[in-house]
Amino acid sequence: MAEAESLKSLLGESDLPTMSEGVDRVAVVGAGQMGCGIAHTISSKGIEVLIVEKDEESLKHSFELLEQNLDREIQRWGMTESDKRAIMSRIRGTADKTQLADYQLVIEAVPEDMSIKSALFHQLDVILGPDTILVTNTSVLSVTELASFTSRARQVIGMHFLHPVPKRPMVEIVRGLKTSDDTFEFVRKFAYDIGKNPIEVYESPGYVTTRVMLPMLNEAMYALMEGVASEEGIDDAMRLGFHFEYGPLQLSDHMGLDEVLNWLESMFRETGDQKYRPCPLLRKLVRAGHLGAKTGKGFFVYDENGRRLHPSEDMIRPF
């Protein structure tokens, strides 16, 4: 709070919304796996959440996904039924974007596609109040470019959450070229309010986490394709050798192989660096519809709760 007041005194009239009582409600546009995780995390800290989807059918699916995620946590003894009821009681949904008009903070979590995100940013810019901060959850796209589709470039910023959002204690806060210090300070405080450790990142393809992680995932896939070791062997070597929670192949499955492919393609286009050239095995699995835990098959087989099973004999082998 003292830092925000100091900024105001230095900069004069500020575009920073008041933080005297913190953010009491947030809108999340796009409630797929990431959007649901963001909504879950924010609601668990006592903040009201409005999730916005493109139509009623998508909205229904989002709430079903939220319920499934929370039920999975109950089965793992990660929360109680009363915790679930409290979280769900603070989340409501709509397919009407005009309801966002008076929101202080709006977080975008639609698919990682510049054409989709830019069209949404242009649309939201017309709807939102002049002081609203617009956050993108992109992992590889340019915050500066997204901001160019609005009239509020100073109030556009990135918050790159990691999956699964409720379990990851950090978030990358990404400044665009014109993002104001006031906007950054507001979002930084919000990150602390929802239990995340904010890491300041200046815009660069892939930021820190995606830039460093993708080559490892991609190389693990090449190692599998070349027969260096089995799926279990590769994952066990990295998990046990470096104290990772998941091996790189299982981690890719949980991220969604289609998403990993999109990120690699985007990074390859942006940088031209061969280390981001997607492994052909990844392309093969995505084309076959084996997208990881969300479809039940990827590099491993998963049950309906997303728990990994050992590859079964009837699994379609990737090579």
Spans of at least 5 consecutive residues whose pLDDT stays below 50 are 1-20, 312-319
User: What is the CATH topology classification name of the largest domain?
Assistant: Rossmann fold
**Secondary structure tally: strands:** 10
Broad shape:
globular
Q: CATH superfamily of the largest domain, please? A: NAD(P)-binding Rossmann-like Domain
What kind of sheet is the major sheet?
8 strands, mixed
Read across the widest sheet, the strand sequence of neighbours is 3-2-1-4-5-6-7-8
Helix- and strand-based class? alpha/beta
Helical content class: 40-55%
Beginning-to-end CA distance, first to last residue: 57 Å
Report the total helices. 12
Structure description:
This protein has 319 residues and is α/β, with parallel strands linked by helices. It has two domains: 201 residues, Rossmann fold; 99 residues, Orthogonal Bundle (N-(1-d-carboxylethyl)-l-norvaline Dehydrogenase, domain 2). The strands form two sheets. Strands 3-2-1-4-5-6-7-8 form an eight-stranded mixed beta sheet. A two-stranded antiparallel sheet has the order 9-10. The longest helix is centred in the N-terminal third of the chain and has 20 residues. The chain is globular and about 55 Å long. The termini are far apart.
